[in-house]
Amino acid sequence: MRDFKKERERMVRSQLAARGIKDAKVLDTMKKVPRHLFVPESMLSLSYSDEPLPIGEGQTISQPYIVAYMTEVLALQGGERVLEIGTGSGYQTAILAEIAQQVFTVELVGALSHRAQEALKRLKYTNILFKIGDGTFGWEEQAPFDAIMVTAAPDEVPKSLKEQLKIGGRMIIPVGTAIQELVFVTRGKNKFKRKKLLPVRFVPLVTTH
Q1: Residue 56 CB: number of other CB atoms within 10 A?
Q2: CB–CB of 37/3 below 8 Å?
Q3: What distance in Å separates the CA atoms of residue 107 and residue 57, rounded to the nearest whole number?
Q4: What is the C-alpha separation between 71 and 61, in angstroms, rounded?
Q5: So what's the pLDDT on residue 25?
Q6: Cα distances (Å, whole numbers) of residue 130 to 35, 43, 202
């Protein structure tokens, strides 16, 4: 019988803390959320490996380090309303739901959303709202958001997402096609600031328009 708890602790120690992830809330959450419940059964043995894994429908569950890094950059304190674009497996959704007050998550592929909803329901999360639709439009009825996390890469930061940020809100998003960079966007009173963080590889953000 595999000791998934031990594997999670090892993952946090060797893949996250050793690489500079410092936020205690993020480290504790990564130690707690069972990543193995979000990966396909055929990949179970790789649940806590240092890599992204395919989850079907041409999508992936991100490498644990990237999940932790993107969560840490948002600097969540616990009272936030967070928009996630790309529910995918639901793993990142669970990480956000552990820390934020409420998570609004949008996924274009219905089959993925339903699978994620089942996994998250089994884990008894009650602070997540799901929407099946085009993530480039965000979730206007629920805006504005304290933070936005995008887990697939558009060519450019969608204007609608920027506009759904609160003043003082922040967004982390991979941007680009052949070459992608993780970009941190913050909304000031009169303008948006953007900062490039690190090169990444995400699946493209698919749009219906």
Answers
A1: 12
A2: no
A3: 12
A4: 15
A5: 97
A6: 20, 25, 22
Strand runs labelled E in the chain: 53-56, 59-61, 81-85, 102-107, 128-132, 145-150, 165-175, 180-187, 192-200
H-helix or E-strand spanning residue 122? helix 110-122
Rounded distance between C-alpha atoms, residue 109 and residue 58, angstroms: 10
Q: Is 33 helix (H, G, I), strand (E, B) or coil?
A: coil
Fold of the 4-200 domain: Rossmann fold (3.40.50)
pLDDT at 197: 96
* Closest among 190, 206, 199 to 58, alpha carbons compared: 206
Domain ranges of the chain: 4-200
Q: Is residue 1 over pLDDT 80?
A: no
H helices, E strands: number in the chain = 6, 9
In DSSP terms, 61 is beta-bridged to 53
Closest CA to 184 of 106, 105, 69: 69
Q: pLDDT (tens digit, 9 = 90+) per residue, 169-186?
A: 999 999 998 889 999 999
Quick check: is 62 catalytic?
A: yes
Question: CA-CA distance, 3 to 107, in Å (whole number)?
Answer: 31
Task: Give the other-Cβ count within 10 Å of 132's Cβ.
Answer: 15
Provide the pLDDT for residue 175.
Answer: 97
* Selected catalytic residue, list 62, 89, 113, 160: 62
